Amino acid sequence: MRTRWSTSRIACACSASVSSTRSGIAAFRIGTSPRSTNASRSPIAPAVKLVPERGEPTTKTRRSSSGPRSRVLVPRTATRTAVEPYADAAQAACLTTCTNPTSCTPGLLQVRKVSRVKLSHADRVLFPDDGVTKGDLFDYYGRVADVLVPHLRDRPFTLKRYPHGITGEVYFQKQVPRGAPEWIPTREFTTHPREGGSRQVDFALVNSRDAVLWMVQMNCVDMNAWYSRVDKAGRPDFVVFDLDPPDEPNGYELAIEVAQLIRGLLDEVELPGYVKTSGADGIHVLAPIQRRADFDDTYAFAEAASRLLEQRHPGLVTTEWLKKKRTGVLVDHRQNGWGKTIASVYSVRPKPGAPVSTPLRWDELTKDVRPRDYGMEVVLERVARHGDLFAPVLEDARPLGAAAKKLTRLVP
Description:
alpha+beta; DNA primase, PRIM domain; 2 domains; 6-stranded mixed beta sheet; 9 helices; 16 strands; globular; disordered N terminus
């Protein structure tokens, strides 16, 4: 199978030692200002010229003669070893260095990785107001995959496909598409559609950079995965607070204020909280928990916390679902449930400007932040400087039971 070479460039202190440009590798510069715009150029300059090709990826699904296709879950260790190599050791070392903000200085780094995914229709415009193409998304996700994949690994994945761009019809697809490559592992679960009944669904698991790129080939804009992993599908590893600001000129400032209130409440019950822009119009606060609680537990905790904040701050915080009856910022606890999905950190969202769901330090979440400040280039620069600010969500889990008991004592 023919492979495709792509290049990435990030800020790195040791770039001088590997800065020679090889044949077929182009260089481009990362933007520095969140608010800077330039209508004359693409938000992500392509690393190589991508020639549109017809059809879907050439990888064919192999079926046994004895029956339908089956795919086994790839062990986590095996998945990690399958990640594509860097072009040489110097580049790999330099990329690793760049996750440390103290060692990064402005510079250039060419990083080549092999991809098994053949991109078709690279010039298809997915964001008509901004000129952002499928090739731009492919380039961005290839470059951010090292920090994105750990947040997707082993989580059932729902495809949201935009074959006609973000202004066209969107197709939600839980079942892994026919013709998916064999190297994308899957796991089957029983789901319960809203219309009733049940059905078996074979979910894709996005466990590698190539799997992310294949989802882009399928015209996915954002990456949507479960709150739990397949080995303990009924045990989420975080509680989510989804903040929906009111339709007011200062609505996002109010959401920022409420996010800080959630952080304060989590401190009271001794749970860590981590914040990211939703990339759309809201804010997500995640509290990582040990995988002992089930979804009923996380729903009950999020509901109790949200209603307590509503009591403490009437008019600012609400749990009212109906928008016409709502005053203030909705803290939506209903997003905590089995089979629910959330747009992953580092996901490009299908909104004008191609904003990205971006992790922030709490001291960065000031009233000056706006939901569309963080585009693809800005996020890549932040990753090069700071590494993955959302890594603690995977590492800092605490017991929910103890926090729930503390929360109960706070309720009047």
